[in-house]
Every structure is written in structure tokens, then in C-alpha cells.
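Try it yourself: sequence plus glutathione, in.
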Amino acid sequence: MRVRWALEEVGQPYAVRLVSFQAMKEPAHLALHPFGQIPTYEEGDLALFESGAIIFHLAQRHTGLLPKDGNARARALAWMFAAVNTVEPPILDLVIVKIVEGDKSWSQQRLPLVEGRIRQRLGELSTRLGDADWLDGEFSAADLMMVSVLIRLKASGLLQEFPNLAAYVSRGEARPAYQRAFEAQLAVFTARS
Ligand SMILES: N[C@@H](CCC(=O)N[C@@H](CS)C(=O)NCC(=O)O)C(=O)O
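Structure, out:
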């Protein structure tokens, strides 16, 4: 979704190649992604992995996702790293504790610790965002990454504890480019079911 959304924001056509969980671990895919994951991105003789790197590449190549001013671009990059390196890890932990480790005897004890770490990050982010629409001026790749990370929390109820963050995510989802990406992604799953 992140990569689709970025491609829609910059108005670039794209083709999607679906990869099964098994194929992800086979040599052809490992040549594209050393950790056997998705997404990967191919453009001419360039192959990239890591959603953040792919989106940064698209944002540098095309207009619409990064400010022109050098300092503002650097700040946008800082927010992109913050999204995947500071905000996303405790959110991923929640997925792990609830789904991957949900059957372990200690998972219920761990849950409040993980939720506490998420609340801490959301509180800090909420304070910084305040009543602004986006993280640093106009919508940028920084918001695309941060909204994509926060969306993972929608089902947990945690996001709703911070109304300005819930509204921030809704603003991201309301963007026409997000809507187009979502419809395209949904079509993949509805076609398969
Ligand atoms: N840091 C990576 C994370 C990639 C990731 O976790 N991909 C998941 C799907 S969203 C995956 O491929 N999971 C299968 C696996 O790890 O075997 C990125 O942002 O691209």
C-alpha cells in the first residue's frame, strides 16, 4: 500500500507482481530482497527493497512528495526515518504479541507493556503535530510514511485515544491518491477470494 500510494501521489503508472509466501523465500526473490520480504521495486536496471527507500527514491525522482527547499527535504527525511524507526517498532510489537505470540502464557502480561510504549510514542507525536494538518508544512513523503505506520493501529483503538492523530490518519486516507491505491489493493484480494 505504501508504495502504491506513493506512485499514485506522483502520478506514475505501475504494474504489480504478486509473490506468494513460498516464492518470497526462493532465490529469484531473495536476489531482489535479501530478507525475503515484500515490497520490492524494479525500474529499469534498478532493484530496491525497504518501503522507506522505495518511497524516498520515488519522491526524489518525481515532484509532489518532497519540498524543494534543502532543509525542509532533510526534515522530511528525518520524519520518514522516525516513522519506520521510532514509531513503527512498538506498533509491530503489538502485532507480534497479539497474533504471533498470542498463544503464549505470557502474552497477556506483555500486552500492557507494549501498549504503554505505543501510547508514549503517540503522545509525543500528538503533542508535536498539535492542530497542524501535516508534520511539517505541506503533505510530503514524511506524512505518507507516518500515516501508513499509524494505520496499523486502527483496529486496536489506541489511535482513537489521540483525536488529532486519528484525524491526521483520516486526512491521509481521504487523499485521492490513497483512495486509488486502496481500491487497487482491495481489488487484488477480492479477485482472489
Ligand atoms: N522494513 C520492511 C518491512 C517489510 C515487511 O515486513 N514485509 C512483510 C509484509 S508487509 C513481509 O514480507 N512479511 C513476510 C516475511 O517477513 O516473511 C519494509 O518497510 O519494507
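One thing you can check immediately is this: The two ends are 19 Å apart (CA to CA).
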